[in-house]
Amino acid sequence: MMRAVVRWFRDSWITRGADGEAAPLEAVAWRIFGMALLAAFVAVTFTTHPDPGLHGRDAVVLASFLALVVCAIAAQPQRPDAPKRQVVLALIGVVVAAGVLGSAQPNGSWVVGPYYVVIVAALRLDRRTAWLMFAGTVALFVAGYLHKGQAAGAGGFVAGILPWFLAMRLLRYVSGQRDELKASRAAEAHAAAAAERGRLAREMHDVLAHSLSALALQLESTRLLARSCGVDEEVALAIDRAHHLAASGLDEARRAIATERGDELPGPERIGVLADAFEEQSGLPVAVEVRGEPRELTPEARLAVYRTAQEALTNVRRHATAERVEVKLDYLADSTVLVIEDHTVADAPVPAAVALNGGGYGLTGMRERAELLGGELLAAPTSEGFRVELRLPAAG
Q1: How far apart are CA 47 and CA 60, in angstroms?
Q2: pTM here?
Q3: What is the pLDDT of residue 359?
Q4: Which residues pair with 387 in a beta bridge?
């Protein structure tokens, strides 16, 4: 039992920050203090004369107590971007409820109300609004003290509530400075990443793209020379395929460079182009089928679909002895599913181990990419060939 209580306490909002990480010890102590103060407020209210009830003055105590609690809860909305008007109106409700509770039960703990108002106003409202709320609250309750001829009580009230307000305003200022520092560091990291992407793009352009471009030109010249010299047809076809591969690699390099520079990532709409290029280079028929209503995917999910299709087709060309290939893209209600399946010629061995660990981008990398997006990638031999299935959640 004790272990269950300790586990609940460790995982509860009391010991956790807004980001889910462990809160500082001071924050935990502050929350426990607030809960203890709330319990004391309830206990004092229900044990002080006149007691909360349903008749006469007792009903006023009960109604004002409930109104104070409800307005206090409304003044601390869960959403940090809640409208300022909601917070201000709720705090005004706390002030009014505390004033009524103080007049009906003067010996109770109604003073918690104004303290709560100035603390929340200092923490959640801008400087002008917070000071106006503080001045109005203090003026109202000081006037109540003076009306009863309790000047000393008014002085003690001001001396006690002012430091709380100033301390909470200072805490808000420090918190704002911390948030600005975090934002500045995040922007700096983003700028550094963008600069690195730009550097990599330049390197790829200067080295890889230029090399592939020169290779494609050289292969084109070799292909023309081979045909003019009347070499064997198979040799000419091999040179022709090598030229297509170099040209395709150059196109991919240029697309990767554009991606690094922030251009739009390739996605499912380019699967047809991949299939056409594969069919032209391999001579194998490719059937592409898209089912369901296409949905907008995140850039990461778009790229995962495209790269998975690209890698699977590359593996078929390198390792399989297929006679045809099927590519299916299904937009289901809860997921997006891509299936690439090849069908081998009769009695051909299924290259399971090789297909699982093909070159290029690698199905292992594709599996990791799918898992990062909350999906999964399955790659396994079938009775007729090999099947690769990418399944991403609809949210992706």
Answers
A1: 15
A2: 0.50
A3: 40
A4: 341, 380
